[in-house]
Design a protein that fits this description.
four-stranded parallel β-sheet, 15 strands, Gyrase A, domain 2, Rossmann fold
Length: 587
């Protein structure tokens, strides 16, 4: 049982004695010098009962069973303040040290979750804008598993849409694909460089050349119908792209149970559309098949060009297009078919979560509503879109090169390694690329995750790589520092007993870090873990500066210190593991 639940149990027993049915809740104190936890419920409870809040709080405290772990006091106007005794603080350290989870409790009921993140598009190079999905998704996967969920991670590649037709058509017009159409006897080797040149060129052309766009639509349909040689070329392109995508995700520390793509859901498209039509949910519109998903009274805000402009709305929610005029599938079609595929492959899935750009909000509302209306998603199953904000440069605009080009993800990773290398050299540390990669990528991940997932943020490498403040390297260095102490000391850890206020602050911050996992689970954002991790590392730094562990002459006290910092290391490493950040051996 967690500390907060133990406190609430004492309060609950007291209210039962007073024949009060309401359960009281506690939170960490916002005035830590006065107490560790506080209960603020007496104000609202007194109003319901028609009593004086202060008198009610006093009566509750008077009815709490005497104990050696907590001190309950009433502070005006009606706060119940709770302070942990030294005995309780010591027992927490000694108990958490033996517990594999370090005091983190798994959920009583595990859920089966399919986590859809990564989502790279085949035939297109990954760029800086692709960072947030694998970083957030990997962290949430690890968090859910820590708390007991069964998680299936699917990269869900975009490999079945218009970009495939556009890329192939451009390569064809550039003469690269002559072999496949009998115009050459030499089979080409399709390279990543070819794709990186062809797709951007084709993407720009489609916006100004309607004939090219129409032809690309037809080419895409041929790929989707598995016509040859179009499908064979598609498979070559996919293989080349996926090889680089896997390397990029490996460098980011992201791993997946499934390497499925939109193409894997293709065989479910016909079945999904048939289910929708059988339920009479679809209608024709200008040759396309659509489903009306708007609900009564719904309004969609139109983006304002000027903050002072009056907010305007469009209504209703646009219909979901599930088949194009030429019979080909769309993004929405494959997403609906993928939900069907997942529910047929994996039974009793409680949640399907998608970590995708927040700008795709309307798309997912449409897809989720179609799936629920058609029964493709069971009534009790949650379909959740976790929309992430934009990663911007210091100018407040999406992170790009000075020339305005989008920065390749591989270049971002190399930039992180180079910057971390500069930092390590300036500190006189001998290192290899692996160490620089851990620090650079760790810095970038922490700099991303400490922000709420739905918010935009500034990509500032110099700030991220600082060894001071709320940064990844600061947390990593705390672990390195503790390891250095433990490697030098000859004494084993002993039974912990509390000696000073610095130790008290560390233990309270351990409790806050444990509670941050539940907050992150609820909010679908890892920022609370990052902040709590920093607070723990910072309280350790204060303790380290005020107490010389290596030169402590009192062996019993030194062993107690070792027990405490060993637990701090354990908790920081646990948090870093959830965030998918590795601590190097030296910094």
């Amino acid at each position: 049982m967690t500390v907060s639940k133990e406190i609430e149990k004492y309060l609950s027993d007291a209210t039962e004695k007073l024949q009060i049915e309401k359960k009281l809740s506690v939170s960490f104190s916002n005035m830590p010098k006065l107490c560790d936890f506080q209960c603020n419920d007496c104000f609202s409870l007194a109003k319901v009962l028609g009593k004086n809040p202060y008198d009610l709080a006093c009566k509750i405290v008077q009815n709490i069973e005497p104990n050696e772990d907590y001190i309950f006091e009433v502070a005006r106007p009606a706060f119940i303040n709770i302070k942990l005794t030294d005995r309780k603080l010591a027992s927490i350290v000694n108990q958490f040290s033996k517990d594999d989870m370090g005091g983190v409790e798994k959920h009583e009921k595990s859920q089966k979750v399919i986590l859809d993140y990564g989502g790279a598009n085949v035939a297109k190079q990954l760029h800086a804008g692709h960072l947030r999905s694998p970083i957030t998704g990997e962290g949430l996967k690890r968090l859910y598993r820590l708390l007991g969920d069964e998680v299936i991670a699917d990269v869900h590649l975009g490999d079945w849409g218009l970009q495939m037709g556009l890329t192939e058509l451009q390569l064809y017009e550039d003469g690269v694909l002559d072999y496949y159409f009998g115009k050459s006897t030499t089979k080409p080797t399709i390279t990543l460089e070819m794709l990186n040149e062809a797709y951007p060129k084709a993407s720009a052309r489609k916006n100004i050349d309607l004939e090219f766009k129409k032809k690309a639509d037809e080419w895409t349909l041929k790929i989707q119908n598995r016509e040859q040689p179009y499908h064979e070329i598609y498979q070559e392109i996919r293989q080349v792209s996926v090889k680089e995508i896997k390397q990029n995700y490996q460098d980011l520390g992201a791993s997946f149970d499934l390497w499925y793509g939109e193409s894997d859901a293709e065989e479910y498209i016909g079945k999904a559309i048939q289910i929708i039509e059988d339920k009479k949910l679809a209608r024709e519109s200008e040759g396309a098949l659509v489903v009306d998903v708007a609900v009564e009274g719904e309004n969609i805000p139109i983006e304002k060009k000027d903050p002072q402009e009056i907010q305007r709305y469009k209504n209703p929610m646009p219909p979901a297009i599930i088949r194009k005029y030429n019979g080909s599938a769309l993004y929405a079609t494959t997403d609906i078919a993928t939900v069907l595929m997942r529910n047929e492959m994996f039974k009793d899935v409680d949640r399907i979560e998608y970590i995708v750009d927040a700008r795709q909000k309307t798309h997912f509302i449409q897809v989720f509503r179609v799936c629920k209306m058609a029964g493709i998603s069971p009534p009790k199953q949650e379909l959740i879109h976790i929309g992430y904000g934009t990663m911007n440069g210091k100018d407040g605009k999406p992170f790009k090169t000075r020339s305005g080009d989008t920065i390749k993800l591989s270049d971002v990773i190399q930039l992180l390694v180079d910057k971390a290398s500069e930092k390590l050299k300036s500190n006189g540390v001998d290192f290899d690329r692996s160490t620089a990669l851990k620090i650079g990528v760790g810095a970038m991940k922490f700099g991303d995750l400490i922000n709420n997932v739905g918010k935009d943020y500034i990509f500032d490498l110099d700030k991220f790589l600082s060894f001071e403040g709320k940064t990844g390297p600061y947390i990593q260095y705390s672990v390195v520092r503790i390891n250095s102490i433990l490697n030098k000391i000859q004494t084993d850890q002993g039974y912990f007993f509390i000696c000073n206020e610095d130790e008290r602050n560390i233990i309270i911050n351990i409790l806050k870090l444990n509670s941050a996992y539940e907050i992150a689970y609820r909010e679908k954002s890892l920022s609370s873990i990052c902040s709590a991790c920093y607070d723990l590392a910072n309280s350790f730094s204060t303790f380290y500066n005020n107490h010389n562990i290596l030169r402590e002459s009192d062996i019993k006290r030194q062993k107690s210190y070792i027990a405490l910092i060993t637990l701090v290391k354990k908790k920081l490493e646990q948090a870093l593991s959830v965030l998918a950040i590795e601590a190097p051996e030296k910094m």
